[in-house]
Every structure is written in C-alpha cells, then in structure tokens.
C-alpha cells in the first residue's frame, strides 16, 4: 500500500513538474513576444482630410493663478500646450515626434518596466503625420479653433490621431497638459510633475466623487479660459508671425473625451466663446446637467449596453437632461456599436497588441477594430464641426450612419435597456 501511495505521489510530482515547465516556457515565450513587439514601429492612421498638418508646442504660465494641486502652495499654473494646424503644402520642416524625447523618457521611468515597456509600444517609434513648426496653410485666411480635451489624466499626445485628422480638415486644434493633473507632465527645462492624488479621478472615493470631480473640472475650465485668452493674444501679436490673424476666434469649438467631455459640456455652459461642443463618452458633472445648453452639442458614446448596475442609468439620465435642454436642430447623440471607452484615443495603438488581444478575448475592449473606431470618431467629430462652425448642411450628420453602419442614432442605444416593472 505504501509503495502504491509513493508511486502516485511521484507521478503527481512529475505531472506538476511538467506543468510548471510548460508554464515557464509559455511565460518565457510571452515575455519575449512582448519585448520584441515593444520595439516595433507604430504608424498611426493617416489623416482623412486634404490639408498637410503642422504641429508646434508652447509652455504658457498663468501669472494670475496658482496651481491648486501643486505640492508648493505658491506654484503658478503652467500649461504644456500643443497646437496642430493646416500646414503649407510644401515644407522643409522635420517630422514631429509623437512625444518629445524628454517626456517619453520620464513617462517610461514613471510607468516602470512592465507597463512602460512590456505592455506598451516604444513611443519614440510611433509615427505621426505632422510637421514641426511648419508654415500655416494660406488656403484660408483664418481657421476655426477646436480645443481638444484629454480624458482624466491622459496626455494630449494620446489623441494625436484625432487632432491630426481635424487639422487635415481645416481646423486649428489646441490641447494642453497641466502639472499634477495630467498623469505626468514634462517640460523642456527638465521639470517633471506627476499627478497628485487630488487630481486623480480614478482613485477618488465614490462618496466624494461628485464634489472632487467638480472641483477638478473647474481647474480644467479655468485652464480653458486662459488658453483662449492666450490664443487671442497670439492671434494679434505672434512674434513669429505664424499664427497672426489665423485663429477665427468667432468659431471656437471644444471636443473632449471622458472627463474632458464633461469639461466640454460645462465649459459651453459657462463661457459664451464656445460655439459648439462634443462630449465623447464622458459622464457629465456640474450644473450643466440641470441647466442644459443653448449651443449645438453632440454626445458620441461607446457601447455600454452590456454594463450593469445603477451608474450607467444615472449617466444616461444626466446626458438626457442636458440633451433635452439643447434646442432642436442643435442636439445630436450617436452610439458606436462595439466601441469601448478607449476606442477614441491612440492607446489602441500605443498599448501592446498582445495585451489588447487578451483584453478583447476577455470582453473588456469591445469588438470594434481599432482603425475603424478612430475613423468613425474622426468622421463624426469633423462632420459635426463642419456643420456648426463652417456652415455645412445638417444632413451631413444624418448621413453618417449610412457611411458607418456601426453608428446608431440616439443616446439610449449606448446603455442597458431599462425595463419598467409591470
């Protein structure tokens, strides 16, 4: 009997050993694949418009405000500002980096080896379609301005595909990152600022979310007002001459993703300079929910139909409250079937496709192919802005679902169906 038990134990031990060796081999192959994939080039989708795209950056300081999230109380509010714009058809400018080298280096240090290298593509090898400091196209005397707000603590560069696409359709696109609110902000002089706990939307306790997020959104809105003031000054007195007279400040739109979308809605409520706004998959906050808007506004949503719990229903009610207060003919809502919350950003490209494969298999990332998702997003955003900033026929919005069958008209299609008890 003892011998039989020993034989069984030995067989089990051998089986466990074989399984352990298989697991080690699989893990080794996976890690090797992730490492090789990290070093591959990552070309972003081509812009769909006719304009070549230029890009430039600034560091602007608001001397009238202190940064409410800085560890030192007297720290003034700095912003790292990005501008994409229609560029002259011929240029001697160099291709832009996806993210400046000093910034991408700081980001990798912050994220660490696993997240920054194994689970992400090498950002220095992401290929963009914009040219650094190129001349502005002279095809139009002025171009409408679109403020593009990133989601939560996301970087402006995470929306390069959308920004370049908008610029290629004749818009000057402005985005910005804020120290201690963006996940990491790096400056040419070597300063690096990490997001503070109070600026981290994802880590806020649910009991305090409404108050803290409204506070955080107020800081972003103050930034927006300052940036528009700076653009007005640059329009009048650009020392380089590049942007002098090029900003059409009577045609200012704002598009934002996630918390950036909530910021877009509240900013349009607060500031009459907003001529049109877009909330891309953002949960609204602030008194815009009760008061609504008078400007044209567009809710572009990912597919939340498989979500459960009370939060999706609350979000839907708040969006409907804003939507119902926007005048007819100026309000739009569409849902992209199979889209997820990250469909709208470059993270679909800059994160490891191996990671994305497993997340998709787990049902986390949705079924929509990444290039298709960004193509639909770009078409929706520039078409809406074409209608309300450039005077294109409103029927162009109605024609979008025919061009992209994944698009469904309406907001409620994004959320779980609610059944009223009988």
How would you describe this structure to a colleague?
The chain has 422 residues and is of the alpha/beta class. It contains twelve helices and 14 strands. The strands form three sheets. Strands 5-2-3-7-6-10-11-12-13-14 form a ten-stranded mixed β-sheet, with helices on both faces. Strands 1-4 form a two-stranded parallel sheet. β10, α5 (259-270) and β11 form a beta-alpha-beta unit. α3 (160-168) packs across α10 (370-390). The mean pLDDT is 89.
Write the layout of secondary structure elements.
Elements: H1 2-38, E1 42-43, E2 52-66, E3 76-87, H2 101-118, E4 126-127, E5 130-132, E6 143-149, H3 160-168, E7 172-177, E8 184-186, E9 192-194, H4 209-237, E10 247-257, H5 259-270, E11 276-280, H6 288-291, E12 297-301, H7 310-325, E13 331-336, H8 347-350, H9 353-361, H10 370-390, H11 395-398, H12 400-403, E14 407-409
Parallel strand pairs: 1-4, 2-5, 6-7, 6-10, 10-11, 11-12, 12-13
Antiparallel strand pairs: 2-3, 3-7, 8-9, 13-14
What's a quick, concise take on this entry?
With about 425 residues, the protein is of the alpha/beta class. The protein has helices at about 1-40, 100-120, 160-170, 210-235, 260-270, 290, 310-325, 345-350, 355-360, 370-390, 395-400, 400-405, and strands at about 40-45, 50-65, 75-85, 125, 130, 145-150, 170-175, 185, 190-195, 245-255, 275-280, 295-300, 330-335, 405-410.
Helical content class: 25-40%
Strand percentage, roughly? Answer: 15-25%
Mean of all residue-level pLDDT scores: 89
- What class do helices, strands and sheet pairing give? alpha/beta
SS elements, strand count: 14
**How are the strands ordered across the major sheet?**
5-2-3-7-6-10-11-12-13-14
Low-confidence stretches: none
Whole-angstrom Rg = 24 Å
């Amino acid at each position: 009997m003892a011998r039989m038990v020993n034989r069984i134990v030995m067989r089990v031990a051998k089986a466990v050993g074989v399984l352990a060796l298989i697991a080690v081999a699989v893990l080794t192959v996976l890690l090797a694949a992730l490492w090789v994939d990290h070093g591959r080039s990552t070309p972003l989708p081509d812009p769909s418009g006719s304009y070549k795209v230029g890009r430039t950056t600034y560091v602007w300081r608001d001397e009238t405000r202190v940064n409410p999230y800085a560890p030192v109380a007297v720290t003034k509010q700095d912003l790292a500002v990005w501008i994409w714009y229609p560029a002259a058809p011929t240029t001697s400018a160099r291709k832009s980096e996806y993210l400046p080298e000093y910034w991408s280096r700081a980001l990798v240090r912050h994220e660490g080896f696993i997240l920054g290298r194994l689970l992400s593509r090498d950002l220095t090898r992401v290929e963009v379609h914009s040219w650094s400091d190129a001349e502005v196209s002279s095809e139009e005397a002025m171009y409408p301005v679109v403020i593009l707000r990133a989601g939560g603590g996301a970087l402006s560069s995470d929306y390069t595909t959308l920004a370049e696409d908008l610029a290629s359709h004749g818009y000057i696109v402005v985005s910005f990152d804020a120290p201690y609110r963006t996940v990491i902000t790096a400056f040419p002089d070597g300063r690096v600022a990490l997001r503070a706990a109070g600026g981290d939307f994802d880590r806020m306790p649910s009991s305090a979310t409404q108050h803290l997020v409204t506070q955080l959104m107020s800081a972003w809105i103050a930034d927006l007002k300052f940036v528009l003031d700076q653009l007005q000054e640059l329009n009048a007195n650009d020392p380089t001459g590049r942007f002098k007279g090029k900003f059409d400040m009577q045609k200012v739109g704002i598009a934002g993703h996630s918390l950036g979308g909530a910021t877009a809605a509240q900013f349009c409520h607060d500031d009459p300079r907003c001529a049109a706004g877009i909330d891309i998959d953002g949960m609204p906050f602030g008194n815009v929910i009760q008061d609504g808007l008078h400007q044209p506004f567009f809710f572009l949503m990912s597919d939340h139909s498989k979500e459960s719990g009370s939060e999706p229903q609350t979000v839907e009610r708040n969006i409907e409250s804003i939507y119902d207060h926007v005048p007819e003919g100026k309000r739009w809502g569409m849902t992209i079937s199979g889209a997820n919350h990250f469909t709208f950003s470059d993270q679909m490209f800059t994160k490891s496709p191996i990671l994305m494969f497993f997340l998709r298999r787990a049902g986390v990332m949705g079924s929509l192919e990444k290039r298709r998702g960004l193509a639909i997003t770009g078409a929706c955003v520039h078409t809406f802005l074409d209608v309300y900033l450039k005077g294109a026929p409103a029927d162009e919005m109605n024609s979008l679902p025919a061009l992209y069958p994944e698009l469904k008209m309406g907001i409620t299609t994004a959320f779980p169906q609610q059944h009223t008890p009988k």
